[in-house]
Amino acid sequence: QVQLVESGGGSVQAGGSLTLTCAASGFRYSRWCMAWFRQSPGKEREGVPIASIEHDGTSTYVDSVKGRFSISRDNAKKTMSLQMNSLNLDDRGTYYCALEGGDCGPAFGAWGQGTQVTVSS
What angle do CA 33, 19, 13 make, to 5 degrees? Predict the structure, then answer.
C-alpha cells in the first residue's frame, strides 16, 4: 500500500519561503507521477494539482504559482519537494502530496495526510 508523508509546512510572512517534502513508500512502480494539491481555507481541495512532476522530471504548474514555486523529485529516494517562494495570502492552506503509477493524469490513487501552510500579512 502506497504511503505518502508530507513535511515542511509552517507559518511565514507574506513574501517568505517554505519547502515542502513528500516521502513515498510501499510501492513498486517503475514509473510514477507525483503532484501537490492545495486546499484553501473554507474551500474544497482543488481538482487540479498546483504542481506535478513526471518520472523524467517534466514539471507542470498552475498559472498562480508559476515563477514562484519549483517542484523536484528524487526517484531513488522516492521523495518530492516543493520550493515555495514569494508566498502570498492566496497560498494559505493545506497541501497534499499525491502519487499515481505511470504518467501524470487526472486521477491519483494515493494521497498524503496534508501539511498546513499559513501565510500572514
Answer: 135
What CA–CA distances, in Å, run from 11 to 15, 68, 80? 12, 17, 20
C-alpha cell at 55: 518520472
Residues 14-58: pLDDT tens digits?
A: 999 999 999 999 999 999 999 999 999 999 999 999 999 999 999
Pull the grid cell for residue 81: 519537494
The residues that bridge with 120 in the sheet, in sequence order, are 13
For residue 80, the one-letter residue type is M
- Grid cell digits, residue 8: 515542511
Q: Which residue has the cell 518530492?
A: 80
d(CA 52, CA 65): 12
All three cell numbers of 71, joined, read 517542484
6, three cell numbers = 508530507
35: Cβ contacts below 8 Å, ≥ 6 apart: 49, 51, 52, 53, 97, 98, 99, 104, 108
